Amino acid sequence: MKADVFIYRIVSIIIVSLMSVGCFGGKIEQHVFENETLSLTYPQGWRVARDFDNIRDLNIDTSNVITTFFDKRESGLRVITLTYENIDQGLSDSDFVEQSVDNASKLQGYTLLQKKDTLISGFETVLHYFRGVDAQGQDIYYLQSFFRKDTIAYIFTVVQKSIFDSVSSQELESIISTFIMK
User: Fold this and answer.
1) pLDDT tens figures, 33-91
2) What is the DSSP letter of 106?
3) Distance, CA of 72 to CA of 19 (rounded, Å)
4) What is the rounded CA–CA span in Å between residue 47 and residue 76?
5) Helix %, strand %, coil % for the chain, to 5?
């Protein structure tokens, strides 16, 4: 089992490195966030948040936040938050994803932009792009992706003030693709 995790980690890092060079035209320095249950690689220019006060008005429940990353290169808001949720063992992955998408659809100003099935780090998941409205009535754009291990679900929520273009979508999807559950 440990060998499988190690192989997934190496393959993910190689793929993300190649994608980063291809997408951004040069060598991108990478950093790894890791704890006892997961790891995630993120590019230079992003920073890990140490507190969550600045994301409370983004419709993100901070009680189950594992970590938050901010893109320091962006002039506007761009945040990735990784949360977890304890779920019933009997709940299927697809039912959990549908419940999560349904919960998001209740946000003020919700508009589905795109929902696509994909395979990331060997796990079937959904990339759920949607628009909402922040506390000040401004459009805010979200990307959510979901992973599950036993009774723990991990949820990536990306929030940014500008609409997702192909470059930002590729970068965010490449960051999410480095996610490894131990």
Assistant:
1) 888 888 888 888 888 876 666 565 565 667 788 888 888 776 666 888 888 889 988 88
2) T
3) 20
4) 15
5) 30, 40, 30
